[in-house]
Q: What sequence folds into this?
């Protein structure tokens, strides 16, 4: 039978009335139905008030109905009879509103599927929510546990992200490297380089695209406002091209500006330009006073071109009065280099190239270069520091462990849930619901719990960021980077989804191994904790304990190291001491006291000492614990003069100190004398050695009276006589093991970048204004900066260690708590599972204590297994820690034994409650319980 | 025996959805099945069936598609939606408990529910 084209139902949308009525005419014209039926149908349709496609659709269906009836052998009268009164039918059809535009059919096939899906999901969700509401304990514990894990991870990730990943603002920063000289024999790992090295390395254009030379150079910016000490650098030709970002204003240095007498040009950082000059657009060409000399501003560079990182001002490198040839001949290793590698050149190749060239140079000049090689360090590592980088990665690893343990815990809880839901699931599976369908609500429960936990975790990480950065700032190179951002959020969300995936799969897997008949027959009676459940839970517990063991090993070592560090006697008495930087311009100001740099500092010290509560004061080039201002790794030989050259060259850190330095910081002298007023520029040169260095240099004789001869011109050109030995004190950090220091008197080695230290009788922080006034009363143009108490310097220096160990200890405690909950859970469930068995044993005469012991033994077994499983990973982790530890061996046996034993004990303790219950099992009750 | 209108109002949709749960059906087929399989108890006047179907479809419990049957005839087939399945399940449970309650009260004798 031929049918008309385009019946309603396949045409989407509402066609025009005309075409619908034409198609209706065609439909009724083509059908073989008797006229009375057609008339009836037309009347019904008219009466129903339906129009357009809806009318055509209903009509088509009714026509088919009559055709089907006739084909089945019924008569038209019979069929009409069954339909009854046309008016009633029309009314019923009208009320059933087949033309309702919101009928799901009208949404199309996909729409129906989607609507179906939505209904299914909302059904499951309602079911899951009901399940969660009925088990508030499970819901709370699981949600909070996951929130803890996800929150901690997100927070730590954002710190690591800020420091490691976003530390460098430079374009294609991964190509940037720092070539350095090395001398393993002398413990030189990142030594400054010579001008000659730079010239040689620069030629290696296959490896290095660009290379720049610089020296950190601080300048006093004067004129207009208060004097300001500005950090800056002297840079070689085309230095800024290495970094790659163009200036936002003006230009960088022209080649002729690097010529001697090429004019005084300077480039400002955007920050300095905005802060000091209010972002003046007419700054170019303006003259500013640096160290009392006029420099012309030629450009302003953005943060992406700012190197060294703290530099705010740059001046071009010229060799001034000396020639480059002289610099080469002297081989003064006083420069730093930054380079951009050719894309694809690779770090190993760059390392090989610089090392080969440095070794050739060492072979050419063994007198100056014996033992020197070179390497390149990625800029990122250089900026962050290898130890910080490693500490952060370890932090990340330990917090990931916490999440793993949290996951194991929730998996445990979920297992419990899915096992008690086993009967319900079995019933559903038995009445024909698919397996997936049966566990769907449970999977939804997991998903909801994870999402709630994740949401809560992300929220709490946002809140905890403030606390975290408050704990961190001094320790981290880029505190600005640690903020709540899109990266943090997406990390948290990603982590949540990943966790959700794992948990949503958990019940599905459990139910796959379900024995329907068994669980139907005995699940009801025993609450569904089969032997399989216990085994799975035990495995999870062992994993948790193993992970906690690893964390505990690491945390105990770190904490022990930090406590040792904080308790270690740095050899100075910092209380009451105020420090500040007082840097003089290159040209001493025109004041009566300023006959020489040394005299000026002497005058400062005397004026400070004259303050009411001051006990003593001194100038010093390098403050202890501040890693700043020390002349590190300068070479010297033993003996009285250049003829000694060729003997073993030694390297030491040099510190230029004023009179009263040792007294002010309370550093004791173990032998000899301190510097005195009689150590004049004209008198024989003298030096004081640190204790361990003196022992190293003169193991078999008294160092007093011995002579050393510096081979680098920076400190002195004459032999120095050792007149004293001072206690070791740390300069770089508390954990720094390099204590080789040579002290020289400021009167004999003038330096213009000194700090002042003043000891007061009371609280030094209240003396800041007096101290500034005292300095300015001598010279008002000298900037007084970085005013800090010695105690604050010490605190900042150990901040990184405290930060890391606090966090690791926190994570370890968390992990342990979670693991204990896990062990308790297993033992408790095991108690319920073995209830009947315990009853039988009791009935057979077993002592209550025996039964308790049975369960305690189980806890102990778990603990032992956990420790054994965690030990290898713990050893591996602590090996990674070795560089970060102070005075603690990474494989400290005492710690390993103590931690292992305590963990096993804790595992036993977690079983105490269930064990007590076990010892009180009433045999009658237990036997009836089955 | 025919079921009273009020009862039919509750039972009709359940019966229709119950049939459609087994397979998709078209209008005439539904009418026939209802009459045949229930011994005429749930036989429904056509004037009731089609509006009932439209109602159920509007509520999203069933969906319809025009298809060509094996005989070559084009018919509108009805099938259960997910929502319909869920609804039917709830109804089935209610009917079961109602039956049980009636049996327990002795209102209906066990085993005679089908007559």
A:
């Amino acid at each position: 039978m031929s049918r008309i084209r385009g019946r309603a139902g396949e045409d989407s949308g509402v066609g025009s009335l005309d075409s619908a009525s034409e198609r209706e005419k065609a439909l009724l014209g083509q059908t073989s139905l008797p006229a009375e039926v057609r008339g009836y149908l037309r009347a019904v349709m008219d009466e129903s008030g339906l129009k357009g496609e809806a009318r055509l659709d209903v009509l088509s269906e009714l026509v088919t109905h009559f055709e089907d009836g006739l084909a089945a052998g019924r008569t038209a009268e019979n069929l009409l009879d069954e339909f009854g009164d046309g008016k009633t039918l029309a009314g019923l059809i009208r009320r059933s509103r087949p033309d309702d535009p919101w009928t799901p059919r009208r949404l199309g096939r996909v729409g129906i599927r989607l609507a179906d899906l939505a209904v299914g999901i909302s059904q499951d969700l309602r079911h899951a929510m009901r399940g969660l509401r009925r088990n508030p304990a499970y819901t709370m514990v699981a949600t909070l546990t996951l929130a803890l894990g996800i929150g901690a991870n997100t927070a730590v990730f954002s710190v690591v992200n800020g420091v490691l990943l976003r530390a460098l603002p430079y374009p294609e920063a991964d190509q940037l490297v720092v070539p350095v000289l090395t001398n393993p024999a002398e413990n030189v790992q990142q030594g400054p380089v010579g001008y000659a090295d730079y010239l040689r390395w620069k030629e290696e254009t296959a490896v290095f695209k660009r290379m720049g030379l610089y020296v950190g150079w601080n300048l006093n910016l004067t004129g207009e406002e208060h004097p300001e000490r500005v950090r800056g650098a002297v840079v070689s030709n085309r230095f800024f091209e290495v970094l790659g970002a163009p200036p936002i204003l003006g230009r960088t240095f022209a080649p002729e500006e690097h010529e001697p007498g090429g004019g005084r040009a300077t480039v400002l950082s955007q920050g300095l330009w905005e802060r000091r000059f209010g972002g003046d657009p007419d700054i170019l060409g303006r003259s500013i006073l640096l160290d009392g000399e006029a420099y012309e501003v030629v450009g302003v560079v953005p943060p992406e071109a700012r190197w060294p990182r703290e530099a705010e001002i740059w001046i071009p490198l010229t060799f001034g009065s000396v020639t480059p040839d002289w610099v080469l001949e002297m081989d003064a290793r006083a420069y730093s280099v930054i380079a951009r590698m050719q894309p694809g050149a690779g770090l190993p190749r760059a390392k090989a190239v610089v090392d080969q060239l440095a070794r050739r140079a060492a072979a050419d000049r063994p007198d100056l270069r014996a033992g020197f090689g070179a390497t390149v360090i990625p800029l990122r590592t250089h900026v962050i520091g290898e130890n910080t980088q490693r500490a952060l990665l370890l932090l990340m690893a330990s917090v990931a462990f916490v999440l793993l343990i949290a996951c194991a815990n929730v998996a445990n809880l979920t297992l419990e849930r899915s096992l008690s839901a086993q009967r319900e699931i079995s019933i559903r599976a038995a009445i024909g619901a698919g397996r997936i369908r049966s566990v769907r609500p449970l999977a939804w429960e997991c998903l909801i719990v994870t999402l709630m936990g994740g949401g809560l975790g992300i929220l709490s990480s946002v809140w905890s960021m403030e606390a975290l950065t408050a704990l961190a700032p001094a320790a981290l190179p880029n505190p600005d980077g640690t903020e709540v951002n899109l990266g943090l959020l997406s990390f948290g969300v990603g982590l949540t989804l990943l966790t959700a995936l794992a948990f949503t799969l958990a019940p599905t897997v459990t139910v796959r191994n379900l024995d329907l008949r068994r669980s139907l027959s005995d699940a009801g009676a025993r609450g569904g904790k089969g032997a399989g459940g216990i085994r799975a839970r035990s495995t999870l517990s062992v994993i948790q304990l193993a992970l906690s063991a690893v964390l505990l090993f690491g945390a105990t070592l770190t904490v022990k190291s930090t406590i040792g560090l904080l308790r270690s006697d740095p050899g100075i008495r910092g209380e009451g001491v105020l420090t500040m930087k007082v840097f003089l311009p290159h040209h001493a100001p025109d004041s009566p006291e300023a006959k020489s740099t040394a005299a000026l500092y002497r005058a400062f010290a005397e004026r400070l000492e004259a303050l009411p509560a001051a006990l003593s004061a001194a100038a010093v080039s390098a403050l202890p614990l501040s890693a700043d201002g020390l002349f590190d790794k300068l070479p010297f030989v033993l003996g009285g003069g250049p003829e000694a050259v060729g003997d073993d060259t030694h390297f030491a850190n040099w510190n230029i100190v004023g009179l009263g330095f040792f007294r002010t910081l309370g550093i004791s002298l173990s032998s000899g004398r301190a510097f005195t007023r009689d150590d004049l520029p004209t008198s024989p040169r003298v030096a004081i050695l640190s204790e361990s260095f003196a022992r190293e240099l003169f193991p078999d004789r008294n160092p007093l009276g011995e002579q050393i001869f510096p081979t680098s011109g920076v400190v002195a050109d004459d032999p120095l006589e050792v007149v004293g030995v001072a206690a070791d004190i740390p300069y770089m950090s508390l954990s720094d093991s390099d204590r080789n220091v040579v002290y020289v008197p400021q009167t004999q080695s003038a330096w213009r970048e000194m700090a002042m230290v003043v000891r007061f009788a009371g609280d030094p922080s209240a003396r800041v204004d007096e101290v500034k006034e005292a300095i300015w009363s001598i010279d008002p143009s000298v900037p007084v900066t970085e005013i800090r108490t010695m105690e604050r310097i010490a605190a900042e220096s150990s901040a990184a260690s405290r930060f890391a160990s606090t966090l690791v200890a926190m994570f370890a405690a968390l992990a342990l708590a979670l693991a204990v909950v896990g062990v308790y859970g297993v033992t408790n469930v095991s108690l319920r599972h073995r209830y009947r068995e315990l009853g039988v044993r009791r009935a057979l005469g077993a002592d209550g204590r025996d039964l308790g012991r049975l369960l305690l033994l189980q806890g102990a077994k778990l603990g032992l297994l956990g420790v054994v499983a965690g030990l290898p990973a713990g050893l591996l982790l602590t090996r990674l820690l070795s560089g970060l530890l102070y005075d603690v061996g990474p494989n400290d046996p005492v710690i390993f034994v103590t931690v292992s034993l305590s963990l096993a004990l804790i595992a036993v303790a977690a079983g105490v409650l269930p064990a007590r219950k076990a010892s009180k099992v009433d045999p009658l009750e237990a036997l009836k319980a089955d | 025996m025919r079921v009273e209108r009020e009862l039919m109002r509750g039972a009709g949709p359940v019966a229709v959805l119950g049939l459609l749960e087994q397979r998709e059906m078209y209008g005439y087929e539904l009418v026939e099945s209802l009459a045949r399989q229930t011994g005429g108890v749930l036989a429904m006047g056509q004037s009731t069936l089609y509006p009932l179907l439209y109602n159920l479809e509007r509520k999203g419990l069933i969906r319809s598609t025009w298809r060509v049957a094996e005989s070559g005839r084009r018919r509108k087939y009805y099938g259960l939606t997910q929502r319909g399945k869920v609804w039917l399940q709830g109804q089935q449970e209610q009917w079961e408990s109602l039956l049980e309650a009636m049996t327990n009260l002795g209102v209906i004798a066990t085993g005679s529910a089908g007559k």
Remarks:
- The CA atoms of residues 128 and 134 of chain A lie 10 Å apart.
- The longest helix of chain A spans residues 435-471.
- Residues 1-16, 478-482, 519-529 of chain A have pLDDT under 50 and may be disordered.
- The first strand of chain A starts at residue 176 and ends at 183.
